[in-house]
Input
Amino acid sequence: MTERDKSDLPQGTLDLLILKVVALGPVHGYAIAQRLQQTSRDVVQVRQGTLYPALHRLENRGVLAAEWRESETGREAKFYKLTRKGRALLETEAASWRRLSDAVGMILKLSEGGAE
Amino acid sequence: MSWLTRLWRRDQMDNMLDKELSDHIERHTNELIARGHMPEEARRLARLELGGPEQVKEQCRDERGTRWVEDLGQDTRYAMRMLRKNPGFAAVALLTLALGSGATTVMFTLVNGVLLKPLAYPEPERLVQLHRKIEQLGEPWGFSPPDFRDYRREASSVAKLAAWSWGGGTITGMGQAEYVDGREFSSDIFSVLGVPPVRGRAFTMEEERGGGAPVAIISYRLWQRLYGGSEDAIGKQLELDGVSRTIVGVTAAHFDPDGEIDGKGDVFIPLEQDPDTHMAGRSANFMHVLGRLEPGVTPAQANAELARIAKHMAEQYPDDAGVGAVAHPLQQDIVGKTGSTLWLLLGAVTLVLLIACVNVASLLLARAVSRERELAMRVALGAGRGRLIRQCLTESGILGLAGGLLGVVIAAAGVRPFLALWPGDLPRASDVQMDWRVLVAAIGVSVFCGLMFGLAPALRAPTKELEQKLRGGMRAVGDGSRRLHNGFVIAEIGLAVVLLVSAGMLGRTVLRLSTLDPGVRVENVLTARMSVSPTVLQNGAATRAAYMNAIDRARAVPGVEAAALTDIVPLGPGQNMEPYWASAAEPTASRMPLANGTTVTPDYLKVMGIPLRRGRFFTDNDDNEHPWVVVVDEVLAEHAFGSIDAAVGKQIHLPATGNTPFEIIGVVGHVRHGGLAGDDQLRVRDQLYTPFAQLPDRLMHLFSTFLSITVKTSGPPLAMVDSLRRELRGTGNDQVLYQVRTMEELVSASLATQKFLLALFGVFAGLALLLACIGIYGVMAYLTAQRVPEIGVRIALGATARNVMWMVLRQSLTLIFVGVAVGTVAALVAGRAMVHSVAGMQRVEAVSFFVMIPVLVGAAATASWIPARRASRTDPIRALRQE
Output
């Protein structure tokens, strides 16, 4: 796969993706990066450099909570989880994303139909 | 985690961030190793994928939202370091700012205390002072008792109305006899002001009427002094002018119905208890009236109602025709003309502060130019333009703040000494204190000034041609900053012109006024109020005899050349407006001309050295047994009869004294009673004299409260005070001299405000001149230093020292003349403002400009001559090597 085939994330979607990943259970930064990459089957490129600022922003906004606990490596790692506020945000963001992508999909179908 | 915690625990958070990121890299490395990479290679790849760890960290820190505070702290530390590195610059800038803001703060403290702070009474905005208005003569007139009673009854927009008049008397039976100042009050005065007596009670309506019980209220001060603040002072008897009065109350310490004008009263008695002592007709004008408006009523509404009542009264009483009443907010009345003096001084001192700011700004700008490389380096290292501007502003803001704080310290120490210098009594002086308003204004203005003068250097933070700047090729000063420097010089010169010309105008005014003839010979004349023995006061003839006896005794004191009595001291406080008419038919009351009436004994002319123009002055024969006579001054003579010759022998009517006409027996010179400065502006300049010996007996008690004895001495008059006091104490040892003053004092006091303003403007103008010269020197020295290589080339190409000097001087002279032009226009505007607010200043005179501007141009040219000379001695070889 070449660089060309990867798309940049639309503005604001990184937050949504992070929320979704964290919603599955407490997780540390590296795992979030990996899971994002795996689940998007390497199409979506999240530059790891942008991940941490986003995590810290979400934490400061009270959407994520973090705690340090021992990980499988035997050392302490910073684990993120959703707060109540974060769960609510995830629901509204996900719903609005779905509405948007449905609408975009419908418009694209229409124009295909028109070409036929 | 809250914003504050994030700020507070930033070190701990940095640690955790480090840990988190290294954890990430380690996990990634391990995975890459597991996939078969060599450890070294794996670590490198992991780092690469994350991006520069420092940049990631920076971005994470940005997300905390505490960045600007951390930057501020950093900038502050940096600024302090820069200031410490340059102690000379820091000291000059700080001192300039501290002096400028200290002087401004002192003036603002006065403006705040006197003009801005509300009076210390409950709901002070409802308090008004009523003025009686006479159609052709203006407003500052008092009321007559019947008019006051009518207004009090009729005016529904005024909740309460109270009157007061001057009083006072001799206290006996408490040790040494002493005269105390006092007032006569109507019963409501305490409730109008909302300040009830702290002990006892106010007067009742019954006590206010003729023949009421003899009672008195004493001031808090007198209560402390005579009775040691004892509770049983209430009910004690006080011997005042021979009448035994029961003390019924003590006023609050801050009770002060007339705003500290002419000193405070200490004894208060009911108004009008003794109707005989006052003229009770509707034309009398001795009552001052204070009122408290109904809630929600504006002075304008009250005035509309007062006008209706006045119209009604004018229809009923002929004496009230053309007479009205106007209510002014009390605060405005108490402050009076002081307001414009204070604003004038605040304006002048603000100009000095502005010059100081411009000076510091040009210093900062010069420094910024020499720091250009440093700033370019920072930009090259990734600092944003906003960040650089913020750093420059932090530096100048800190200068401003420090200057402001120092200024507040200077002002705190300086306010009281400055008040002591104030000429005469400053109204509301006790309200002048530093409060939070002053502090906020002083610090606010200083920081604002700091930011403003930091703006110029900050905005020129480099963004372009970094390379060239870094290479150090910055020899020539950019056009932008040269224009700014030029602007600074022009502004400084312009501001200095305004102050210098203003000072010049004041100086000419004071000079002109002090050469005016006051109309009296002031050398060796002593005046003092005198109260005769209280035992004679209830008997008019005895009172008169006691005063005549005092004159005889004074005359016998060695060193006294002449002695006389007068009810009004020339150029002193008070005046007695006397209506008169000399026409064929009697005019209506409101059309009647007025004169300053003075009652004197025959030697008065000799004591005061007033010239006799025509006819004769009074003799001992002009008494009650002989026809009534008056002497008029030349102003009245010309006003009423066309010439001083025509006046002698004519008849004149003084309706206040009765229907019998008086014969004019002489004409004397005019006395500038309204002061050297103020007399020309008086509405009433006519003067007339009546003989003391013809004063009706029933008025003797009233006159005893303001009679003065005046003596002409052969030596220094103040040396005579003790022997006069001894000689005049009388057989009962109860006759007192008070308010002792020489005529010299009184005449010079009439110019005190102008002299005070002149002194302050002189200091301000001197400071402005000095600062402007320092400023122009600094700028020219800096600009020529930047041109050294260019000058070197010119000299190498054959320019003479004279050419170079002229080149530099021409540059600065251009700036100076532009500054003078701008300043002249501003000075014309300022001069007009001064003519409005300084008594005796007549118009903006060109002379002040012609005298003061060359001084400034000379000084400024000298200041720029030094750098010009230095430039002309440039060694071309060395200059070129510098390049």
Remarks:
- The CA atoms of residues 515 and 676 of chain B lie 9 Å apart.
- Chain B touches chain A through 24 residues (CB under 8 Å).
- Residues 338-514+752-882 of chain B form one domain.
